[in-house]
């Protein structure tokens, strides 16, 4: 039987243990620890004692595999999100980590952590038997657990298994359970690691994985969180505080329990000045350091970990939210994004975003009661449609009293239509069938048809101020007569107009699942597009269908791209933690319509901002002078209005709508903010608030870009 210092210590104190039982059993627990230590010693020596049996070989092989994993630790890392210019706009993480190499860890940090956690770190081989015996003697004599014996190597093993290897709560629980089996595994792995890694490698790995509280792991993240500096800049008192927190991150939180944190910090500083430390400080340095305040940042310097609290979330939040949804759709799970350590270069243009945000709020203040004003900007292209801005008068957040919303009103399908904007799809179907923008259509003051529904009579009137009489398709798109487009829809076919809308970009708006009444219902099999066709909804051309602001912008980008549809992408490129490019599974671009149709449509939409067009007043007030294709729309009860527009370089859409009860129509009174005014009326039009938002924003976005003409038909 193995007899050594450990077993002798245990046998010497059994009488004390008996007394301990009478004092409530505290010492009995310590006796258990003593027995556990003996088991560990015996287990660690077992392979040498019994030779290379099958079980030993299997165990040793498993330990080697695990130690190799520990040596090459692939810790969960923070994903960083950048705008098109490389500025950080968001972080995704479960736990905040900043990987730190050995040469970027200050010697003060090495001194602090080894002094308080493992003074003999540089001398033992992974398990400190001398320290274990000393701890047992101290604890038994005091009648309480006052001193631990786990080495930094053992602590690294435990923290790796808990915070890196474990995938769920059960695995994390098992990795830190107080059992002989766990201690045995940790000890064996620690010894194995000491054979394969240098001391500096182990200490660096430990300092990269250990928790420092406040959702912060590793010294690189801790230095930033608590002091806003790099780990190579830590002075004595800062390093000592971080080393102190490791002991009990919750109880020693310097923000919530500063007195306890300072007391523990000063204890660390005193230990740093003791003899035989590899990185010893002087008594004078220790005295000065103990007199210093904690110096912790308030608020902490840890970056936020969600789109709601992302830096600049008022302007970046909607884009960040769309990016995350887009990546989820492309196969990146939230867990992968929060642990993968990716660097995501996005398409977000900060200047365009700020210009659009300013314009949206200028027309509808963020705290306006029940009125939203989102805008999306997309850059056309043959190979991609890059999303440059997603903003609203609302900020992205959870506090409605501050004018915030966590619903992505820039990209989700809004429960209102875009009015006469949908006449674009009827016109596009006509041009595809051979019509010319200069061909004329009849525009009576009243038009009755039996073509739609199930053969019921349907009579349509024009909006106030729209004169009757024949006019060109180009003129009709600028002045927007209802009667003319219902007549045209009869000629080109409802199904063709619906298909055109989907091709040009309303993929989600028309692809969502609906029930028999046309309301959203994911349990049903029919799409909104099929529902419109089945029920013969002639009102489709008048824009009663719920839409997404981003998709409306992408419709214009498709037209500006000679008829090429691409998914509106927020991603420029992605690299992994090693800097290697990561492919993303995006939908491919496709030829939606022929260039001839796109060019004819561009020419047909070229007059809306000119004299007589529905957005002329707003364009003139903003000083707009570039060629532009545009269209406005308003729904029947003035609950929503839209302007869509595009140059060859940039496309955009604005939708002003009522987003809260009582969901009344919206009134506009000069330059004053709009307001809800009636359940049946109002005077909101696409040429008012949406146009007044669109033109100033897009004018700023186009600064410095050459003036380009629309394509000839």
Task: Provide a concise account of the structure shown.
With 713 residues, the protein is α+β, with helices and mostly antiparallel strands. The model is unreliable at 1-29, 43-60 and 144-148 (pLDDT under 50).
Description:
Keywords: Carboxypeptidase, Glycosyltransferase, Hydrolase, Membrane, Multifunctional enzyme, Protease, Transferase, Transmembrane, Transmembrane helix. The protein has 713 residues and is α+β, with helices and mostly antiparallel strands. Among the domains are: 95-291, Orthogonal Bundle (Penicillin binding protein transpeptidase fold), CATH 1.10.3810.10; 361-436 and 491-571 and 588-702, Beta-lactamase (3-Layer(aba) Sandwich), CATH 3.40.710. 43% of the residues lie in helices and 13% in strands. The protein contains 27 helices and 25 strands. Strands 6, 7, 8, 18, 21, 22 and 23 form a seven-stranded mixed sheet that branches. Strands 2-1-5-19 form a four-stranded mixed sheet. α4 packs across α9, α5 crosses α13 and α18 crosses α25 (595-604).
